[in-house]
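Same chain as my last thread, 291 residues:
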Amino acid sequence: MDKKKAGYTEGVVSIILNSALFLLKFWAGIVTGSLALTADAWHTLSDSLSSIVVIIAVKLSSKKADKKHPFGHGRWEQIAAIFIGFILAVIAYDFLRNSIIQFTEHGSAKFGTLAIVVTIISILAKEALAQYAFYIGRKTENLSVKADGWHHRSDALSSLVVLIGIFFSSKFWWIDSVLGIIISLMLFYATFVIIKEAINKILGEEPDEELIAKIEETIKSIYPHDVMPHHFHIHNYVSHHELTFHIKLDEKLDILSAHKIATDIENKILDEFGITATLHMEPMNYEHRHD
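reply #2:
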């Protein structure tokens, strides 16, 4: 699947559908006087903004490596994901504040058939968009598209909360305010998930144990002696990955032979995993302070 094209497509579909849903839900919110439904509408519109960010990020991250950026521009996806998370946090704060004000002033909304129909349409449409974004994200490993999927999912869940609340609105005057608070907290959680994953990618992560095990097996397949690979670090630049680790070699080896072993391992890892590896060689009995 073409990563750039898939990202563009997901963004455009999201913008069109979210804009239509925003108009529908905002109209219903005005008619019913519901703060929760109106907040849900603005949440939907924010999805369009995040999708615009996704499109921009896909374009920027697809640029080839240059002299100033030798590792490419792939991390624009993570920057975009953080920006989407920031948008969610601002929206969540605004709705939380308004919901608390409405609760203290004993405000309420008048729900009806219109609110129910509009909310059900929103739930189905937003969950479909979320599944589509998650599918594209899995296929392309695009973090900003995955973040957009979480944005869609949070909107679907907030609409579900609104729907549940509608059926209890006649019994509890405060239901609209409480729903607004719940939706806000859901948005804050989505913000936390999105930003945490993006920051972890930028800071660098320890390779998972499964990948390390496969690399160790690959090394054994081309070099029979145990070189004790250790001190693994992986650097995710989205468009490609850099792997660094240490190996121990017989100190009696000449530099040419040691270099050949390291180069063969690096080439094998690139062929097998598509990862650019850089090895640090140590004498067999040398105790490195990082070991």
